[in-house]
Design a protein that fits this description.
CATH class: Mainly Alpha
CATH topology: Serine Threonine Protein Phosphatase 5, Tetratricopeptide repeat
Strand content: under 5%
CATH superfamily: Tetratricopeptide repeat domain
Structural class: mainly alpha
Number of helices: 6
CATH architecture: Alpha Horseshoe
Shape: elongated
Radius of gyration: 17 Å
Number of domains: 1
Number of strands: 0
Length: about 140
């Protein structure tokens, strides 16, 4: 696992390693180390989203945006930060930023077969954002 890789890729790699270790019946210290590392990565993702939500409620959208942008940069495969950013950017009239986030969401979710419905939702919102930005 390379530190320079997005957090989601590192988490996916850790989960594949856990699956491999489980399949071999190797539930020793290596398994525990990888499991703890995966849990810490998941906590980072979740905590950014929760803190972002709290900051929004406190009327601090710019601070929330910074946290959501970290998750988008880390290519997390949960739709929350992408949706929240598109809403916040739309409210601020920052349509090009909204488009950038939606395009990233389509890229991230498009790689995952199970999330085709999510991609369709992002694409629909992307079309609306483009019409606002270029009208």
């Amino acid at each position: 696992m390379k530190r320079s890789e997005p957090l989601q890729k590192r988490l996916d790699s850790a989960n594949r390693e856990l699956d491999r270790l489980r399949a071999r019946g190797d539930m020793g210290s290596r398994y525990e180390d990888v499991r703890h590392a995966a849990q810490r990565m998941e906590e980072v993702i979740v905590n950014r989203n929760l803190r972002g939500r709290d900051l929004e409620k406190q009327g601090k959208p710019d601070d929330a945006i910074a946290l959501y942008e970290q998750n988008v940069s880390d290519e997390v495969d949960t739709p929350h930060p992408y949706w929240r950013l598109t809403i916040l950017y739309d409210k601020a009239g920052k349509y090009k930023e909204e488009i950038r986030v939606l395009e990233k969401a389509v890229l991230v979710f498009g790689r995952r077969e199970k999330q085709r419905e999510q991609v369709a939702k992002f694409m629909s919102r992307l079309d609306k954002a483009k019409s606002k930005a270029y009208s």
